[in-house]
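Dear colleague,

Thank you for sharing your sequence with our group. We've completed the structure prediction you requested, and as agreed, I am returning the results in plain text so they can be pasted directly into your records. Please verify that the sequence below matches your submission; if there's any discrepancy, let me know and we will rerun it promptly.
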Amino acid sequence: MPKKMKDKSAEAVETEDQYSLVKILIIWAAATLPMAILSWIIFPLMASDFESDPLGSSVTRVILLTVGLIWLFVLSLIIVRQEEGNVGWTTIKRRLRLNTPRDPKSGEQRQRLWLWVIPTLIGIILLDIVLASTIDDLWVSTFPFFAFLILGVVLGLA
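Please find the predicted structure tokens below.
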């Protein structure tokens, strides 16, 4: 019987740490609404005509989106401060999981495990340089209606 009571108390602690639906929606709105307002309301009011000044229009959009990203950073710090009580480097490091890798067998921290990053990065770079065009050609030959989408991503149109 005491074990069941212990499980219930642990369950209660877990549910206290879990955000309620209302809090999730408030955080979601705090993150998305400023970006939407900057992109869909403020940008059309501030930007010059794209046809007459495409550079000015593009710079305005980039500046407004940068302001929105700064707000997202500040919001993240506010949430971390409320949850953790501080925003020190050790807290941020722990929350971002920037910890030294651990050996799966012994659980000890091992700096040498960082060396796996090097072949992984080389593999990703080789995949992107060598196989990207082949994969794109195969993708477009299989699904021709995606040809413009891939070109649009490359040209920044999509």
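Summary note from our side: DSSP finds six helices and no strands in the chain.

Kind regards,
the structure core
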